[in-house]
Amino acid sequence: MKQTINGGALPTANIVINKSRLKLYNKESKIPTYYLEKGAEFQIELFNPTTGNVLAKIKLNNNSISQGGLVLRPGERVFLDRYIDVAKKFLFETYEVGNTSEVKEAIKENGDFSVEFFNQIIKSPYTYNPGPFGGYYGRLGGSFGSYNGTGGYNPSSGGYVCDSLSNQVIGLTTLTSNSTYSATNSLNLSNVTNCVGTDNTFTTATYNSQPVKKSKKIETGIVAEGSNSKQELTEVNYDFNYSPFHTIEYKLLPQSQKITTSDDLKIKRYCHSCGCKQTPTNKFCPSCGKKQ
Fold first, then answer.
1. Is this structure's pTM higher than 0.70?
2. CA–CA gap between residue 178 and residue 161 (Å, rounded)
């Protein structure tokens, strides 16, 4: 999908393997999706169609890969295969977790991918002379502090709900003492007391009798450090705006989470290791022997 700003095209970012773009799913949604194989090392294709230098700052798993970024000159296309600060390739790694709401909350940022683009600051040819009170000029990537007030995080009430027999924590409550606590999918206990609250005097706790069901495992994926990269980066000294003028976001998910459609059966398959074309029945790449 082509986007424009002020009459000009916007920078783009795509996930590729051996310079071949992967298919992008859910293009019309807020965050489109890429599906990757376990153990796949991939590259990020960045393109700057504007007439000025732009800075690309990349986040993986919702964490910045560097305090700096990658500078793209006008018309420049780069296939970045490594982290900015360490010469390691981008590796998609998967593992299995329980299918519970608590786990889903913990892994919600797994596979988050975003690129922010910043315009270069063109310095004025005139000399700036600060006034009597001086001035301050900051650069992108600097350290900024914030005033946190005088207090910290202090819960107003509530605490843990415990089984009086085993003394194991089985839930949380924000209720005050002498209140009734109800939870779903909790242990089927007829009498639970000795609950740890604001004053250790919780006297009643009722639970529904739903049995605990074993949840199926789900596969999740994160981007980690892969093998050594031979790609070299050169440091430059430019100044860029604090706020991005364009942001691209994708979600990287394991192949196991993809819902196969008839259109997928027509897609050409390539080895995620060497890029060799595959047939639908290939279990191993005929070129490099990598499991498909």
1. no
2. 13
Contact between residue 15 and residue 44 where contact means Cβ atoms under 8 Å apart: yes
Alpha-carbon distance 292 to 282, whole Å? 7
Q: Contact at 8 Å (CB) between 223 and 252? A: yes
| 23, two tokens | 């298919």
Residue 177 has what DSSP assignment?
A: T
Q: How far apart are CA 96 and CA 25, in angstroms?
A: 23
pLDDT band at 28 (very low <50, low <70, confident <90, very high): confident
Instruction: Count Cβ atoms below 10 Å from residue 235 Cβ, excluding itself.
Output: 6
- Please name which of 8, 16, 5 lies closest in space to residue 77, comparing C-alpha atoms: 16
152-165 residue pLDDT tens:
222 233 343 444 44
Q: Which residue has the tokens 């920078």?
A: 11
Phi-psi region of 274 (alpha: psi -120 to 50; beta: other; left: phi over 0): alpha
**Largest interatomic CA distance in the chain:** 80
- Residue 162 backbone dihedrals phi, psi, to 5 degrees: -120, 155
